[in-house]
Prior knowledge:
The structure holds 2 protein chains of 2 kinds.
Chain A: E1 14-23, E2 26-32, H1 36-42, E3 47-50, E4 57-59, E5 71-75, E6 81-86, E7 96-100, H2 114-117, H3 126-130, H4 138-148, E8 162-175, H5 179-190, E9 195-198, E10 216-218, E11 221-222, H6 223-234, E12 240-243, E13 246-252, E14 256-262, E15 276-290, E16 294-296, E17 309-311, H7 312-322, E18 330-334, H8 338-348, E19 353-358, H9 366-373, E20 377-380, E21 382-388, E22 395-401, E23 408-416, E24 419-423, E25 426-428, H10 431-435, E26 439-443, E27 448-453, E28 458-460, H11 470-485, E29 497-499, E30 523-525, E31 530-531, H12 532-540, H13 546-553, H14 566-576, H15 581-584, H16 598-602, H17 619-624, E32 628-632, E33 635-640, H18 648-661, E34 664-667, E35 672-677, H19 681-688, E36 701-707, E37 713-723, E38 726-731, H20 736-750, E39 757-760, E40 765-771, H21 775-782, E41 797-803, E42 806-812, E43 820-826, H22 830-841, E44 847-848, H23 851-860, E45 909-916, E46 928-930, E47 940-950, E48 955-963, E49 972-976, E50 981-987, H24 997-1000
Parallel strand pairs in A: 1-7, 8-9, 8-15, 9-12, 15-28, 17-24, 18-19, 18-24, 19-20, 34-44
Antiparallel strand pairs in A: 1-2, 3-4, 5-6, 5-7, 10-11, 10-29, 13-14, 14-15, 16-25, 21-22, 22-23, 26-27, 30-31, 32-33, 34-40, 35-38, 35-39, 36-37, 37-38, 40-43, 41-42, 42-43, 45-48, 45-50, 46-47, 47-48, 49-50
Helix pairs in contact in A: 5-6, 5-11, 7-8, 8-9, 12-13, 12-14, 18-23, 21-22
Chain B: E1 3-6, E2 10-13, E3 18-22, H1 36-43, E4 52-58, E5 66-72, E6 77-83
Amino acid sequence: MTKNLRVKSSKLVDETYRISFKFNGTTYYGFKGDTLASALLANNIHLVGRSFKYHRPRGIMTAGSEEPNAIVQLHNGTSRTEPNVRATEIEIYEGLVATSQNCWPSVKFDIGGINNFLSPLLPAGFYYKTFMWPASFWEKYEYFIRKSAGLGKSPDVPDPDIYEHKYIHCDVLVIGAGISGLIAAKTAAKSGFKTLLVEEKSYLGGSTIYQDSEFFKINNQNSASWLEKEINEVKKIENLEIKTRTSVAAFHGYNFLLARENLTDHLPLEQRENKTRQRLLKIRAKKVITATGSIERPLIFDNNDRPGILLSSAIKKYADLFGVACGEKNILFTNNDSVYETAISLIQKGIKVQAIIDNREEIDSKLIKETEKNNIKIYKGYTIVDTFGYKRINSVSIMKLSKDGQKVIGSKENISCDSLGISGGWTPAVHLFTQSGGKLKFRDDDQVFIPNTYPSNQISIGSCNGDFTLDEILINTPKLLKEFLNIKKTEYENIEIYSAFNKSKRNIWLLPSNKIVGKTKSFVDFQNDATAKDIKLALREGFRSIEHVKRYTTTGMGTDQGKLGNMHALGIISETASSKMGELGTTTFRPPYTPLTFGTIVGRNVGKYFDIIRKTPIHEWHVENKAEFENVGQWKRAWYYPQNGENMHEAVQRESKAARDSAGILDASTLGKIDIQGTDASEFLNRVYTNAWSKLEIGKCRYGLMLNEDGMVYDDGVTTRLDENHYIMTTTTGGAATVLGKLEDYLQTEWPELDVYLTSVTDHYATISVCGPNSKKIIQKVIPEIDLSDKDFPHMSFKNSKIGKVKCRVMRISFTGEQSYEINIQANYAKSVWENCMEAGKEFNITPYGTETMHLLRAEKGFIIAGQDTDATMTPIDLQMDWIVSKKKFDFIGKRSLYRSDTIREDRKQLVGLITDNPEEILEEGAQIVADMNKKPIEMLGHVTSSYFSPNLKKSIALGVVKGGKNMMGQKLIIPMEKKQINVTVTDPVFLDKENKRLNA
Amino acid sequence: MFLINCPFCGEREQSEFKAGGEAHIVRPKQPTELSDDQWAEYLFMRKNIKGIQFERWNHIHGCRKWFNMVRDTSNDEIKAVYKMGEKPPVK
């Protein structure tokens, strides 16, 4: 039977609404409004997980998103599991199932706990130091390291939930709905700014909303009541939008922010169906007001990580907001006044405070007096030197601090407890501010970093700006707002404030102990098990930069990014290295502020919506005819058309034989098409292609090679002169967009004087290519009016024509080496023209072929594919295409680079043909090519770029690039494979019909 | 993410734009006259300034126009945008 630790009806939970949930297999109850953490604490459960490295028992430590320890795995149905969920953030719902992480077989008995006793063997940098040698063992080590790495378990099925993205534009964004955020939002909205207020929690008001003691008053009411009235007013303002459960993840430049809005995670499972789970808000704000508050600091002493040790503010919050006592015998340990607020809250609720240990000697404030009135023993000038209790704290030992705070004196005293609240003061939550590029300054008085210079139109207000007390907030916030919003007045000018808080603080980063540092476990980063000892070791080993110390010790590198302990790490470094805190800077805070699930990041862009899919107008026909498709950029292209259970090889052999023997038909609609018009069109082509264009007759086509300015082949294609000042250029499928971009770049920036207009018409025209000895007969049947005689319509020419009433352009060009015609027709008519061709070609066994056959056919002919046989290091000369480079032209893009000292080297990789000794042996594309296997290291001469079995030549053929290959014709080379060596002979890259008889037939 | 004031369209998200490297590098009128070193200077050598930098940008998912930008690379502040062919407004 577990104890009931509910104290009394509280602000947030609804005790009339009971919710059951499961934790580590046992069913428990909580109330609506509880977080998993508050519900577990109410059931007297502190032990929630095991630490990362030493597997030490760990409990709930905080009540917010800074939680380092209480991170659990959620299981919502069979396909939903989520690791690393902070128990302090997830609101319980009917059906919640959670388990502990990083422990086996259970959180209560964890085999890995042995690491704790081996800890002297596991210092900082253990992995770097240990797994270095022997080098050959790395693969064995890696298996075990990977097994023990990571915290939760990632889901192994696709995320079934719905996520979405939303853009929001506003005048003012206020981050955080604590007292200062609410004041800011109300002031901004009432001054006419379209305002958005976001709050990561489910409720508004921050910590002030439960600050209802007589020690904090605004206009003679306790601060909570005053703020409640404010909230009621704020909710009514029209141009103010409020989003709760919304956490800002990233604050980028130019006031662009990303926030996660949580829509269903708090709902019972059955109410979540078909609802968007989370929304990624992309916010562009004219002005940003950051009011993200502050995070309480822990204190760093030996064994400061046991379950039952919480931040003092968390104990207060659990009592005030959730009505839960974290223990029945509480001890509080502090260096400032904050714990007295907790003490008074606990006393009011009848929760026992055993003792308060304050490391300050001389203290005197209203809060302390009130505490003393209640007969609570305060140990002034003391520190905790150790704690006890394995799965739950059961006592502490304390000792007197020396005057300088450097050591402990006197004798040890033990006090029993079941909960310890610690407070080391407060750290402004400047994470978002620094993400935006803001620079911090160090305030020596209370040892905090606060915003200094703002990189965009933004301010920080409230405790994230270093204003920790009620009076500071209420005096400074209106002042800052007036200047920032450029307004004359706020409604907070003559407000009466009463705050009993005294700001005195005794900051000691690492509290002294009666043991030597090496014998203590004083945790600085609780999630990653980094201790003060580790940091000191890193400094002894020579690390100086805080960024290096961070990586070496992994301090601040957990999922919580060290929200609690980073300041102490800096403090310990600066003390040990005798440098000043402000001069060290901080480590870099990076987005996201709290972890985001991948679903939120990708939104709706999953599955078939991951990227745009482009389909040709003939696509449906390919689908109906059982084509297999391949992705070419965003295009879906028919790859091959298997018949009667053929595999790809068999289909391609059949298709390519048919194309050469009789007729083949290809959907070439994906080729890029650029319409070029203007009086300088010919001159323009002269400058962008390597060959000459001015003399191309109207009605003729020409193949062109386009280079980059560095002389390397960039793209190729056939361009047709439609009229005096009108061309149509084709590009490769993948290169269409970049070619257009490059041409526009030159036109706009280098040659604005040229009268040339470029229009992309790729999607407007479909291209149907019919090739083979019978192609002429088929085209004649489809377009009866056209004269296809070789004399009137030779290879590389073009005619306007009509199919029925529809205009089309017919080009006689070939990428296969066969006689070939391309019909370009407006896309809407393409499918029916394709079907006409199929019908007309029936008697000739017209065979549709896909990209694979196209590649084979062009390889037989030795035609390159830019991007497959070239790789941005190949000049036209390297490709043995000297014939296409004009010697006469004064200039073209890339010309000068063709005779740089590097490009004229004889031993550059050059394109050659490769014939295997065994004609059945097909080379692997990408395979290395060598000449001598005996000389070590073996020199790699090049690699295979294209390889096929040619059914027309009845042998294996391949293209490859080989160093100095041009002068190696007939030479034997070797392709070394894993289990064999393949002997090849270097040949000319044209394997079939060198005389172009087929083209002109 | 920048908010870029396209000289033709006005303020737009950075995701609509493409960066195009250093601005005001003029393609030599007579490349054939240049030595390898001179050509390499044009072809390869680019400044990488911490501070005020002149850059080319293209409103690729908008009007597709190229324009110039003056940007402080140390804090990403865009000091000015101006059309191709116009003189830089700041030095």
